Amino acid sequence: MSAGGHGAGFAADASGPRLPARVAVPPPGAVTADVERALAEDLGGGDVTAALLPDGPESAYLLCKQDAVICGRPWFDACHRALDPGVRIDWRVAEGDRVRAGTVLALLHGRTRALVSAERTSLNFMQTLSGTATATAAHVEAVRGTRARILDTRKTLPGLRIAQKYAVRVGGGDNHRMGLYDAVMLKENHVRAAGSIGAAIAAARASQPGLPLIVEVETLDELHAALEAGCDRILVDDFDAATRREAVRIAAGRIPLEVSGGVDLASLRAIAEDGVDCISIGGLTKHVRAVDLSLKLGPPPPAS
């Protein structure tokens, strides 16, 4: 679940990403599917501009223009290898490394046309996932020293959930449920349809006894009902500070509490210090601010 370390201490390795054991790299099939879809979107019937170029051996370098946590190497590599299986990519940083603006991340050696045709798609993956990892790392740092874990949500870019949730792990966060299939999460509409929190929990336990059960509550009365019925985690939604602290007191560690709704980086530390166990933040994957990267043909400039 948690990546831990927020990118610190990841050793660069030219053979591939080296991450803490809890940061599972997505299966190659998932990466391949993402890349095939993205390249088809961009290339269509062929890169008519690249076709004008002589197609000899060429080098290129990947430059990061701002401070960032680097994420997305599997997708970047797959983009370039899909168009030029013989391309050589020499990484100077590891997945999860923190880098400064102006860092050359990788050197590439391949065919000219393939390098320029894969450029935009490979950068789109790398800048988006690095943006998610960088934002996550900032949130994880804000709660350092508390018991709170930072979680993502299902508010992801369509078709990129596996990739974005991987980036959250690289940034030091934890994943909430991947989709609607791997955990039961009873929210306001589910409780209303079932008639009560107790009835909804009973139905969930009977139908899916092997899945984690998360229950969203909107009042302290609902919190008491969820504690009485039992579940794996309780999500307190949009509680003000005083009510949130009272919820922590009432729960008394019996069932982990998760906070969601109205959370931003400025308010994060205070929420964590109230003693909650998890804080879920849709903005990690929804409010994507891409990291500024570029791929340039030729050798990198001499280090200043």
UniProtKB/TrEMBL annotation:
EC number, UniProt record: 2.4.2.19
Pfam assignment, any one: QRPTase_C
Limits of the Quinolinate phosphoribosyl transferase N-terminal domain: 47-130
Recorded GO MF terms: nicotinate-nucleotide diphosphorylase (carboxylating) activity
Keyword Glycosyltransferase: yes
Pathway annotation from the record: Cofactor biosynthesis; NAD(+) biosynthesis; nicotinate D-ribonucleotide from quinolinate: step 1/1
Swiss-Prot/TrEMBL keywords: Glycosyltransferase, Pyridine nucleotide biosynthesis, Transferase
Database matches in Gene3D superfamilies: Aldolase class I, Quinolinate phosphoribosyl transferase, N-terminal domain
Domain Quinolinate phosphoribosyl transferase C-terminal: 133-296
Family: Belongs to the NadC/ModD family.
Job description of the protein: Involved in the catabolism of quinolinic acid (QA).
Record's protein name: nicotinate-nucleotide diphosphorylase (carboxylating)
Organism: Luteimonas padinae
Gene that specifies this protein: nadC
